[in-house]
Write a structure and sequence with these properties.
7 strands, alpha+beta, two-stranded antiparallel ribbon, globular
């Protein structure tokens, strides 16, 4: 069975947002071989949701929930239909604090998981300056972070890609 396609989270298996499982989806009540491995922000605690119920919006609707916080996208001026797709029909991602879905060129970015160390070593010029400014990191502190960085570690650096201009956007999170 082919997984649904998510415009703003193109490879949820590799990012760990979707995993193989024989559990039954609490929305459609079917075991489809895969479940969501992050949070649905809802009043009741939902443990197992299949990717198909995420993609068609039925899980968000049934449980009156969201997979990502809509506030950062609203603040960035992203159109409501894009915010709805990201927050109600796209798998979120695990972060140390709360995830912050990135926006660029007036739209939501694609989530590509934890950055590889190679990505961060290659970050330079204006892109690096912007990242350090936004994350409020001094260059000498960044060098220390970079020296000890491990993908999936603490701190975590998440990689997003703008679907309009293809620029990579990075954001950092830690305990």
């Amino acid at each position: 069975m082919e997984l649904p396609k998510f415009k703003y989270h193109p490879d949820p298996i590799s990012t760990g947002a979707i995993k193989e499982s024989c559990e039954v989806c609490e929305c459609c009540e079917q075991a489809r071989g895969y479940v969501y491995a992050s949070n649905l922000y809802a009043e009741e605690e939902i443990e197992f949701i299949c990717p198909w119920c995420i993609a068609d919006g039925s899980a968000a609707q049934k449980f009156d929930g969201m997979f990502s916080d809509d506030y950062p996208l609203q603040e960035a001026g992203v159109p409501e239909e894009v915010i709805s797709e990201v927050c109600e029909r796209t798998p979120g991602y695990n972060s140390w604090q709360q995830e912050v879905w990135q926006a660029h060129c007036g739209t939501a970015c694609e989530f590509h998981g934890d950055a590889e160390k190679k990505d961060l070593v290659e970050l330079a010029g204006e892109a690096l300056e912007r990242f350090l400014r936004v994350e409020m990191i001094k260059p000498d502190v960044w060098q220390n972070i970079l020296e000890h960085y491990e993908k999936g570690g603490n701190p975590a650096v998440y990689k997003f890609r703008c679907p309009e201009c293809s620029e990579f956007i990075y954001t950092m999170d830690f305990t």
